[in-house]
């Protein structure tokens, strides 16, 4: 029995959906910190960081994304596209765990740097992988 390729659960649809998560993560992770920094409980928990430290918390994500996107060519050439996406996902999980369990600002900053690196890697390689597997 041949699977129905026109189904919304077809392999191309699911693949493009999963590849699109990289773009979603970029927007979500870069935007979620702003409302968090407005919460009094968040600021109190992290010792009321001053403005430069809050700026570092926000901007280190973009620095990580830059590093991830700058290294994606080498990473995807050495590992292949699928493994490069998995490589980015691993760093995203590690960074997310650090942010979720952050006991102090340094853990939060390192977590955001790693998540930024992951998103830079994934958003750099996912479109290339999608183009490579697309039917001509």
Give a written overview of the molecule.
With 136 residues, the chain is an all-alpha fold. It has a single domain (12-133), classed as Growth Hormone, Chain: A. It has five helices and no strands. The chain has helices at 11-37, 40-45, 51-79, 81-100, 105-133. The radius of gyration is 18 Å and the shape is elongated. The protein starts with 10 loop residues before the first helix and ends with a helix. The model has no long low-confidence stretch (mean pLDDT 89). The chain crosses the membrane at residues 12-33, 53-72, 84-107, 113-134. GO terms for molecular function: carbohydrate:proton symporter activity. Belongs to the major facilitator superfamily. Sugar transporter (TC 2.A.1.1) family.
Query: Kindly state the mean pLDDT as a whole number?
Result: 89
Strand % is: under 5%
Q: Distance between the terminal alpha carbons, to the nearest Å?
A: 25 Å
Q: Spans of 5+ residues with little confidence (pLDDT < 50)?
A: none
Number of strands: 0
Helix content: over 70%
CATH class: Mainly Alpha
What global shape is seen? elongated
Q: How many structural domains are formed by the residues? A: 1
Say what the CATH topology is.
Growth Hormone, Chain: A
Overall SS class: mainly alpha
**What is the helix tally?**
5
Helices and strands, in order, run as HHHHH
CATH superfamily, please? MFS general substrate transporter like domains
- How would a crystallographer describe the biggest sheet? none
Calculate Rg over CA atoms.
Answer: 18 Å
Per CATH, the architecture is: Up-down Bundle
């Amino acid at each position: 029995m041949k699977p129905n390729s026109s189904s919304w659960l077809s392999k191309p649809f699911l693949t493009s959906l999963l590849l699109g998560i990289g773009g979603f993560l970029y927007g979500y992770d870069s935007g979620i910190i702003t409302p968090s920094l407005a919460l009094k409980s968040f600021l109190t928990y992290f010792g009321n960081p001053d403005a430069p430290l809050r700026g570092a918390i926000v901007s280190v994500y973009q620095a990580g994304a830059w590093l991830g996107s700058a290294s994606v060519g080498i990473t995807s050439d050495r590992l292949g596209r699928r493994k490069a996406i998995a490589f980015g996902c691993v760093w995203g999980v590690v960074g997310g765990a650090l942010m979720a369990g952050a006991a102090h600002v340094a853990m939060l900053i390192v977590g955001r740097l790693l998540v930024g690196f992951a998103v830079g890697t994934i958003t750099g390689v996912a479109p290339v992988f999608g183009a490579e597997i697309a039917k001509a």
